[in-house]
From TrEMBL:
This is Mitochondrial enolase superfamily member 1. Its cofactor is Mg(2+). Its EC number is 4.2.1.68. It comes from Branchiostoma belcheri (Amphioxus). GO terms for biological process: carbohydrate catabolic process. One of its GO terms (molecular function) is magnesium ion binding. Keywords: Lyase, Magnesium, Metal-binding. It catalyses: L-fuconate = 2-dehydro-3-deoxy-L-fuconate + H2O. It is an enzyme of class 4 (lyase). Residues 199-295 form the Mandelate racemase/muconate lactonizing enzyme C-terminal domain. The keyword Lyase applies. The keyword rRNA-binding does not apply.
Amino acid sequence: MATITALKAYDLRFPTSLEAHGSDAMHTDPDYSCGYVVITTDAGDGLEGHGLTFTCGRGTEVVLVAIQSLSFLLVGKKLEDIYGNFSGFWRALTSESQMRWIGPEKGVIHLATAAIVNALWDLWAKREGKPLWKLLVDMEPEKLVSCIDFRYISDVLTKEEAVEMLKKNQEGKADREKEMLEKGYPAYITSAGWLGYSEDEIRRRCREGLAQGWTRFKVKVGADLADDVRRCGLIREEIGWDNTMMVDANQRWDVQESIDHMKRLAEFKPLWIEEPTSPDDALGHATIAKALNPLGIGVATGEQCQNRVIFKQMLQAGGLQFCQIDSCRMGGVNEVVSVILMAAKFGVPVCPHAGGVGLCQMVQHLAVFDYISVSASLDNRVCEFADHLHENFKEAIVIKNASYVLPKAAGYSTEMKPESIRDYQYPNGAVWQQLFKEGKFTAP
Ligand SMILES: C[C@H](O)[C@@H](O)[C@@H](O)[C@H](O)C(=O)O
Ligand SMILES: [Mg+2]
């Protein structure tokens, strides 16, 4: 029996705003950051659970406090009790009678939950000696479903249905796993189209992407319509018309504006418009989808879809044609799996959101699990990739032929290199001290 002895939390930030990496119409100067959690136990096996939640610079300190405030629910707990009744533990974490008031299940407190829960899954997978996707794929349907809290979603998906869906897909699983191991999971690239990049930089990155074999490119829009027309035009010039383009407005528009602007951008044939409007507006998304679907444009959303309840409503209302689960926005793997199952029930493809710091590391596992165990289809499915900060991770993602190569190391691929954890701590890590000295950032 192993008991959790400590939970440490770190504020790690990377100065990506210096080169406009990750910039969009709403987040014009993101410094990719995370609340980073390390869980240790008395097992004596040297294994630690590493988990993170993605943030954008300022505000990470708030997430950190939330993680620390929740830690009393873990320290002293037996791992067997957590993994033996994971949905019960997840509910204890998300429904703690005083902490839930600052959520519930949304915002900072849910980001903090994600970091902790992701660390617990990393530890579980390491203890089983499997990469997370394999842990999920090999788990008995009943056991996997027992990790999910069905409260608030049982009106559209019951435990029994979820077990049934997973059981139905047992057939063909071995073949799909073999196929994934051979070919990897298909991806698209975002790193050519950040909003703050100059025209030359966009052209250079498109050419580089094409040379590397990328065929699907995502472009940021939303700040200014005339500029969007210009940027979409130049990207089509670079990538041609046989390749796929998606556009992402990061919630910049009203509902009617979304429809009007996208009618203007329809000539560039985008596959989807991502986050056109407020991430909470399920009915607004449905209105947009109704207007744009006849033009061949789907609505995609999810990176700021705060929990399974909003996803449920989006799916019920026909508000999304591409379901972009995020590994950190919701309460970790348990809740993500429930959304993957709901999306399958509604016949909506899951196309995970990634990028940031560590998101690609995590969602590769979730996408592969979706294909092998749940959807059994690759139609209209593609996982995001953005080429930043992977070098900080011990088991960095590998891309080959524009696809994610399946991770083989045990865990959730969330563990950073010790020197990255040391040097990027904000504000005392060596990297930040140097940036303050050079006057590139102001010390807090
Ligand atoms: C601030 C971030 O880079 C976002 O722009 C990013 O997550 C983006 O929406 C994406 O879809 O990759
Ligand atoms: Mg996006």
